[in-house]
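User: quick one, sequence for these tokens?
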């Protein structure tokens, strides 16, 4: 316990040692040296000078030759137990002490004794306060500002539950929409988030995935040849049957559905992450009401889950629409496809089956047509899926988030439960308020101290 007090760099140490003991083994001096090795904060007091062995004195100690301390060494003679028993007064004890010092230590008497000790302690304390006062005042002011800010973050006791709930809901919804729009107060610098992440998903992740899909992947020359032959029936055809082209191109277009659904999933995940982003920057407010925090997350998540199937269905329909009608009259699908550069087959036909020139030509024609039409559809899907996701999911959430929160949470029977503070928050507010009062009182005391009072 002593170490806790004397270890502080702004404290003064009063090391009391009996004069009739060995100074080298003094516990008080030992503790003082541990925290003040240079002795800059230590004042030594030697007691029981009248009880020293005959033929010995404390001159070396009182003159500083034995104990290295900077603030001085003062010897005193206190009342004995007998003096206390006979009710010897303090004034008589001080008088007898001075007589003893003048008799035994005449050259040192004026710098020792209880009166001199009292005067010295008062002087040291005043000068110490004067030296520490500017730093102490600054520290108190800084702590006051910190605790005031902390107390403000905890909020005041709720007076109007309705207004408080609407304020929190509005603040969350606004922050959520602003994060999507890129106008939030707190912008991430370490990673993409919100609308920027959604843009990246549309044009980098989804776009590159579509561009990486080869129009003829998984379609061998033998597949093409088999489709042509099956479409001709029992009679050899003079021309390449159109039905074989439609059958094969639909098979390839169907492959565009999975990337589209994956795009929806990635955007949905980002919308979920935005919830965490918004609650992070409203931490104190939502930590204050943990049940309201959980309720907000539940409502927003429920809104996502309601819109997710609708959005997935629309993406599915985009592909289904393309499959429903193969528009060979599309302006970009012209006869140029027939004379475009040759397309190599994905895989060769077995060594047991050699294509004739007619079969090879027909397969190449179909492959060119498939590639030309697939690129048209891929371009359409690449443009329409992001628009679908924005309309049916992102924009819907933005437009309906606040009204959904109000509809689900702004109910009289829920107010008390949702605005119940966590026990930790209430305790922290009380602790901060008490500390702020103590610091304000300390600041008032410091401001009352005048420079003239310290001298």
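Assistant:
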């Amino acid at each position: 316990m002593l170490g806790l007090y004397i270890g502080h760099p702004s404290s003064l140490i009063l090391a009391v040692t009996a004069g009739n003991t060995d100074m080298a083994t003094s516990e008080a001096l030992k503790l003082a040296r541990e925290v003040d090795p240079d002795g800059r904060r230590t004042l030594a007091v030697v007691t029981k000078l009248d009880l020293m062995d005959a033929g010995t004195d404390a001159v070396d100690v009182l003159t500083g030759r034995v104990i290295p301390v900077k603030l001085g060494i003062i010897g005193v003679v206190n009342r004995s137990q007998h003096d206390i028993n006979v009710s010897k007064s303090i004034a008589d004890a001080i008088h007898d002490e001075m007589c003893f010092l003048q008799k035994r230590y005449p050259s040192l008497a004026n710098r020792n004794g209880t009166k001199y000790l009292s005067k010295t302690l008062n002087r040291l304390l005043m000068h110490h306060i004067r030296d520490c006062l500017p730093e102490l005042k600054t520290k108190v002011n800084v702590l006051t500002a910190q605790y005031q800010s902390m107390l403000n973050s905890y909020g005041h006791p709720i007076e109007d539950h309705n207004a408080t709930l609407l304020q929190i809901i509005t603040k969350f919804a606004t922050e959520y929409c602003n994060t999507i729009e890129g106008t939030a107060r707190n912008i991430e610098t370490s990673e993409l988030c919100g609308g920027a992440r959604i843009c990246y998903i549309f044009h980098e992740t989804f776009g590159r995935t579509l561009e990486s899909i080869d129009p003829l992947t998984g379609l061998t020359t033998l597949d093409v040849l088999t489709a042509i032959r099956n479409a001709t029936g029992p009679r050899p055809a003079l021309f390449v049957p159109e039905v074989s082209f439609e059958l094969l191109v639909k098979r390839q277009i169907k492959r565009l559905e999975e990337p589209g659904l994956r795009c929806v999933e990635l955007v949905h995940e980002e919308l979920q992450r935005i919830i965490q982003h918004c609650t992070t920057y409203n931490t104190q407010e939502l930590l204050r009401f943990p049940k309201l925090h959980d309720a907000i997350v539940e409502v927003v998540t429920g809104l996502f889950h309601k819109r997710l199937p609708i959005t997935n269905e629309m993406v599915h329909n985009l592909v289904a629409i393309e499959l429903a009608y193969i528009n060979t009259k599309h302006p970009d699908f012209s006869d140029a496809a027939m004379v475009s550069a040759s397309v190599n087959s994905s895989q060769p036909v077995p060594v047991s089956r050699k294509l004739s020139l007619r079969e090879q030509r027909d397969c190449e024609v179909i492959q060119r047509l498939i590639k030309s039409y697939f690129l048209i559809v891929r371009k359409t899907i690449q443009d329409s899926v992001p628009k679908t996701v924005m309309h049916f999911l992102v924009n819907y959430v933005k437009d309906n988030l606040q009204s959904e929160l109000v509809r689900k949470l702004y109910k009289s029977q829920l107010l008390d439960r949702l605005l119940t503070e966590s026990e930790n928050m209430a305790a922290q507010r009380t602790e901060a308020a008490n500390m702020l009062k103590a610091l304000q009182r300390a600041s008032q005391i410091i401001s009352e101290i005048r420079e003239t009072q310290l001298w």
